[in-house]
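Sequence in, structure out. Go.
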Amino acid sequence: MFKKLLRIALAIIGALIGYGISIGSKYLLIHSDSSYEAYFKSNYQYILAVFISLLFAIMFYRLAPLISEQSVKVAGKIEDDIQGVSGNDILAGAIGLIFGLIIAFFITQIFAVITNQYLYVIITLIIYMIMGFIGVVVANKKGKEIISQMFIARRNSDTGPNANPAQATRFSVGGKGRKHSNIIPKILDTSVIIDGRIAEIIKTGFLEGPIVIPEFVLVELRHIADSSDSLKRTRGRRGLDILNRIQTDYGIDIYNTESEKGLKEIPEVDVKLLKLAQIMGGKVVTNDFNLNKVAKINGVDVLNINELANTLKPVVIPGEKMTVTPVKQGKDSQQSIAYLDDGTMVVLEDGKNYIGKTREITVTSVLQTSAGRMIFGRVRV
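Output:
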């Protein structure tokens, strides 16, 4: 039933278009040669109008299935494209279009002296289309910079002396008197979101500058959350929960990378992340040891959460005393392993017989690496 109504509607539209063409051709022919005026005053003009209207009605009626199919495809493609565009890009594009049309209005005033109305209308339409297109393109290309500056301006106003304390916590980025024009974006990777500590770090305000969560990181989190492996699935869902918390509490949107042409051909998420950091001039926030090494090779600055955590741990020096409880046997047969409250591993030499017993030990050495810290000690006799 719907298809029949659609074909009838298209046939009516075709008839109207045909009638419009017949009327338009009449005025064009009379304007070009006055001898046609007598012809169109006769009944032949009505026959011609009916003929052209019927011709277009039949054409549109026959082409209705094709038009309908193509319309559905175009609508689906438009829907997919819209879903892949972030709200920031749409806002920037709309602003760019408005500014482009305003500029086009002032430009067309220059051509108002043209007496030929047809030429003036054509020039006006061309200028409006060109300036509108340029406005949208420029806004989309520079959209992230515009939104970033808006974010910084809002953050500065919300962290000023008269700011609301809740808003100041949300947008806090550092000490007073800092210049924000050169603030570097911080790009979060998948591992640091799953880890979860990044949410607390953002809350404290230690991360200065815009926080960027690329769209492909969200896609990877979804794939991990849908994994058949229960451990991966749990980690993925935890990452999505942390991401939702970051978005809700701190107003950080997902960054759409569709406009970045250099990223489309890169399949690996880590390589995309480093490329995006190079494009934006930002730093990657991660706790992935291997990504940390690869980033340094590629000249990309990295903020490693594990390194930060290790740096904040209390300093332990050889000869210091501490109390621990070994929980398992170490790599060597005579060693035992204990853990401090912050997760630091303590290796007890000759501590096999003390597993499960709380003992006071003397620190003999400390091994510090980017992956963590190990403390070696002996039980005090």
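Check: The two ends are 94 Å apart (CA to CA). Confidence is low (pLDDT under 50) at residues 163-181.
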